[in-house]
């Protein structure tokens, strides 16, 4: 390897979240909010910037009013009145007019204008010899950061439209909603300062088949638009100014993968069966109707998880029942002759539709999310259930509720489902009279009551992404605690085992649809623990099948028995990895740069 200091090559390490390698010019989307991006806008763009500002002011006002309402409910009106000062800042016409003037006269983007003017006001107030006025400076800064945050959330797409050629996107962070909108023809790959492997941003990158690395700490501070870089989504590296030797080695790696893909393609129509004859169902996780063709192309047996929330985001209105029906029907047709498991809406956490009143919560993943939100926003839930039932006429559709934490939620959801069925019947609308219902097991309380739940549903699908975060109290989005997010933690082994045992005792099947199902390192363990189905993003399905077909169930069972006795997550992981590597070395070694 050439001397990196002489060549200017610089390597940044992060978390590999989406396989593949790309090389190209960098487009810097955004740095940490503390450095507010400032860019010039054209005459025609000024009006857009003012409109963005107005929208961000409205959003901020609604968010503060919502916080005020919940504080008032929890602590009384007096404590909630502190937010009146924040609302007053947002209504201060002198400040807002000055920001608008700055946009119009200096031709700059709205977040830069808002930051400059509000900071001038705050500094002036902070210097006054009056305690009351000094406190108002803090209010202005607080409100200002909320407005800028909202502007940056809405602003990503505006930046994205400014690409002139295919490029590598570098950003401090990237929301799942923005990621879902990336144009594969223009974005070769991306890397972010923040993020972790099971964030929805990472999941979308895998389903788009775009190489991605996240959690590269302060990467966005070192790269500029126009720089040349490589994103290595196999090994979690971003390489600035790659040398010719580096590019040559990556060329070899890409070629090795291409020949592996050809070899795996031969397995497409073969079953996922171990050497000693144990048969698993291998299905695909998909996010949108456009993913339909990839289901059979990757050799999956239907869809084990259709994340329907992407039909609801990046748009101004809710999708109608008809629109949903057409989407679900389209995916059901693409999944045939196999089944399609439609997961009912799982918005909240890190995914909120833009037309939805996004509540400010201190713990969004523990808050108003998934089935909890649907049981309160029943209009939206009913229209989704009706659309699924109608699409059930065309294909073999099953319904899956996310985030079930207690029996009452399941019973309430089923009662609403029965009402939707009765309504369709009385209206004479064709629909599936009988649809299998299952649930995701992704909350520790669901594992604890798995016996009771198993009596009431047709299947379980273990959502390991959330089950890990809730079991270990490790935020799945936070790169600072990513080292604690251990799929092979002994507690997880026990939970998966208990879930499988409960399901099988009641004669129902159990799958895994979290990212563990696509992780070659732990697949031997999942097999040994007795799961019946694995559902993963289409791009990894061929490799999973390749591995399963070289494993022996007998060995996988011995591995799982050991794991259930073990006290060490690293020992469990290395045993599982070792078994996989022994069985199918070519699947593991092809990711190493410089390997032959
Ligand atoms: C999971 O939690 O494992 C899962 C599949 O759901 P999501 O990643 O969408 O939360
Ligand atoms: Mg989940």
Briefly note the structural class of the backbone.
alpha/beta
How much helix is in the residues? Answer: 40-55%
Radius of gyration: 26 Å
Strand content: 5-15%
- Could you tell me which ligands this complex binds, including any ions or cofactors? phosphoenolpyruvate, magnesium ion
Mean of the pLDDT scores? 90
- The fold-level CATH name of the largest domain is TIM Barrel
Tell me the name of the CATH homologous superfamily of the largest domain: Phosphoenolpyruvate-binding domains
Tally of distinct domains: 3
Largest sheet: 8 strands, mixed
CATH architecture of the largest domain: Alpha-Beta Barrel
CATH class of the largest domain reads Alpha Beta
Read across the widest sheet, the strand sequence of neighbours is 1-8-7-3-4-5-6-2
Shape: globular
Distance between the termini: 16 Å
Number of strand segments: 17
Contiguous uncertain segments of 5+ residues: 1-6
Counting H and I runs of at least 4 residues, what is the number of helices? 25
Description:
With 596 residues, this protein is of the alpha/beta class. It folds into three domains: 10-30 and 158-242, Glucose Oxidase, domain 1, CATH 3.50.30.10; 43-152, PtsI, HPr-binding domain (Enzyme I, Chain A, domain 2, Orthogonal Bundle); 262-589, TIM Barrel (Alpha-Beta Barrel). It is built from 25 helices and 17 strands. Strands 1-8-7-3-4-5-6-2 form an eight-stranded mixed sheet. An eight-stranded parallel beta barrel has the order 10-11-12-13-14-15-16-17, surrounded by four helices. The protein is globular and about 80 Å long. It starts with a helix and ends in a 7-residue tail after the last helix.
């Amino acid at each position: 390897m050439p001397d990196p200091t002489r060549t200017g090559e610089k390597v940044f390490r992060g978390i590999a979240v989406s396989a593949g390698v790309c090389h190209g010019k960098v487009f810097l989307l955004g740095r940490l909010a503390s450095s507010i991006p400032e860019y010039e806008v054209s005459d025609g763009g000024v009006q857009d910037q003012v409109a963005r500002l107005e929208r961000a002011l409205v959003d901020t006002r609604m968010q503060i009013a919502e916080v005020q309402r919940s504080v008032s409910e929890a602590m009384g009106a007096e404590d909630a009145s502190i937010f009146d000062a924040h609302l007053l800042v947002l209504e201060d016409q002198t400040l807002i007019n000055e920001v608008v003037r700055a946009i119009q006269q200096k031709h700059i983007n709205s977040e830069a204008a808002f930051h400059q003017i509000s900071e001038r006001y705050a500094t002036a107030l902070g210097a006054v010899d009056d305690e009351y006025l000094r406190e108002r400076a803090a209010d202005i800064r607080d409100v200002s950061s909320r407005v800028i945050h909202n502007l940056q959330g809405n602003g990503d797409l505006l930046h994205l439209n400014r690409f002139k050629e295919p490029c590598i996107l570098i950003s401090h962070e990237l929301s799942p909603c923005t990621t879902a909108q990336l144009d594969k023809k223009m974005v070769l790959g991306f890397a972010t300062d923040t993020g972790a492997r099971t964030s929805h941003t990472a999941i979308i990158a895998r389903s788009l088949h775009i190489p991605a690395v996240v959690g590269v700490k302060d990467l966005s501070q070192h790269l500029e638009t126009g720089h040349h870089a490589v994103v290595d989504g196999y090994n979690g590296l971003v390489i600035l100014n790659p040398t010719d030797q580096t590019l040559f080695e990556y060329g070899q790696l890409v070629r090795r993968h291409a020949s592996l893909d050809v070899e795996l393609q031969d397995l497409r129509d073969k079953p996922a069966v171990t050497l000693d004859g144990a048969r698993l169902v291998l299905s695909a996780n998909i996010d949108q109707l456009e993913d339909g063709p990839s289901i059979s192309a990757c050799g999956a047996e239907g869809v084990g998880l259709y994340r329907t929330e992407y039909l609801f985001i990046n748009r101004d209105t809710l999708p109608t029942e008809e629109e949903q029906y057409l989407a679900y029907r389209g995916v059901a047709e693409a999944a045939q002759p196999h089944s399609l498991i439609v997961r009912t809406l799982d918005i909240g956490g890190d995914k909120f539709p833009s037309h939805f009143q996004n509540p400010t919560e201190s713990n969004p993943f523990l808050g108003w999310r998934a089935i909890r939100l649907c049981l309160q926003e029943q209009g939206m839930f009913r229209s989704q259930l009706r659309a699924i039932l109608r699409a059930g006429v065309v294909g073999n559709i099953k319904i899956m509720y996310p985030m079930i934490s207690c029996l009452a939620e399941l019973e309430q959801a089923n009662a609403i489902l029965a009402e939707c069925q009765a309504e369709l019947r009385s209206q004479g609308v064709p629909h599936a009279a009988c649809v299998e219902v299952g649930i995701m097991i992704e909350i520790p309380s669901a594992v604890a009551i798995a016996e009771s739940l198993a009596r009431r549903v047709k299947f379980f699908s273990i959502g390991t992404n959330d089950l890990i975060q809730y079991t270990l109290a490790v935020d799945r989005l936070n790169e600072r605690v990513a080292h604690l997010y251990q799929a092979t933690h002994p507690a997880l082994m026990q939970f998966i085992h208990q879930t499988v045992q409960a399901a099988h005792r009641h004669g129902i099947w159990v799958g895994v649809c979290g990212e563990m199902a696509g992780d070659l390192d732990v697949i031997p363990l999942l097999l040994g623990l007795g799961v019946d189905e694995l559902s993963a993003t289409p791009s990894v399905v061929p490799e999973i099948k390749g591995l399963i077909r070289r494993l022996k169930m007998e060995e996988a069972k011995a591995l799982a028995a050991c794991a259930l006795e073990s006290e060490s997550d690293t020992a469990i992981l290395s045993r599982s990895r070792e078994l996989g590597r022994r069985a199918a070395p070519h699947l593991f070694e092809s990711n190493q740069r410089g390997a032959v």
